[in-house]
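Schema walkthrough. Field components (list of strings):
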Amino acid sequence: MQNPNIINGVNVDDLTATMEAIQENPAIASFQFKARNQWVQGGLNQTTISDFYGACEERQHKNTFVLKADEPAVLLSTDEGANPVEYALTALASCVTTALVYHAAARGIRIECVESTLEGDLDIQGLLGMDENVRRGYEGVRMTFKMKGDMPQEEMMEVLKLGPTFSPVFDIFTNKVPVTVMMEHNGEPMTIMQA
Amino acid sequence: MQNPNIINGVNVDDLTATMEAIQENPAIASFQFKARNQWVQGGLNQTTISDFYGACEERQHKNTFVLKADEPAVLLSTDEGANPVEYALTALASCVTTALVYHAAARGIRIECVESTLEGDLDIQGLLGMDENVRRGYEGVRMTFKMKGDMPQEEMMEVLKLGPTFSPVFDIFTNKVPVTVMMEHNGEPMTIMQA
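Field assembly_structure (string):
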């Protein structure tokens, strides 16, 4: 038996096998991720992540993840968790990093260290509905990476580009996602908004 | 002294005072949210949320929030946390709920209960770079709400619409956000991608 080919903590043999299996049967690539949210009070609510569908079956995470969101006192709540737009930055940071690390591994490129800091500009006149010309979401986001690896600076910049290029959440931020909002009425979902 | 006017856990007097202050000085409405991410290994990384800028000053959260992201075994990692696209659903669910609760409170509408379930469709051929015609991010997201409140069904549907209408993360999903990716080189940030 050969040792598995592990780069950046990613088993590249398994990654290659996964891609080969998808090429034979693209249905393996269809995933559905899920979340349940329950409002608690004011700006405090709780999201539970426990299961998803992927590679042709329903699957359970090893643990159930419970994520509290809240707003700080200046935004009139109890500050028991990161707020929703901070969760959005968390999604973006984690996704670009994972895409970078996996795609580097697939190319045989070893990375020693990746860190990033993110800033997002939000004018709350938008979300408060005070000014129609101010958007609700981030007006702009900046991500700054520090990376270490045994390669010249120019190559490092090319490797870093793999992150945003292949990241699903970078795509969600920078392109439009169709979202349907429904309300359950007598056990049946009724569509109330599509965007 | 009058009792404060609290609806849905939101102090509506403070909300009104905040909006009046912003009308006098719109600079109060400029917020900047921040996140720091550190890669650990494979699909595991950690985001730290501790401070933000808002209402004209740098502010600290009551606690520092540390959020682990990871991928499940079928996506070749150790399943120590929700994955990045599950964090994106968390951001969306929490934001629409908070926007709904606050805007209902501002209109004097009492809500008893809000729950939602979210599903997002992701074809991983996109993020793996296997098919240029498959997008990296969600192809579509469905949010289904259950609500309780002392009002007729038609009014409940109108109240629910306040959530997506005013939610920053709903805007981030359904519209484009400009994102700049930089790499630090000799202490200076160099732009490597703008989208």
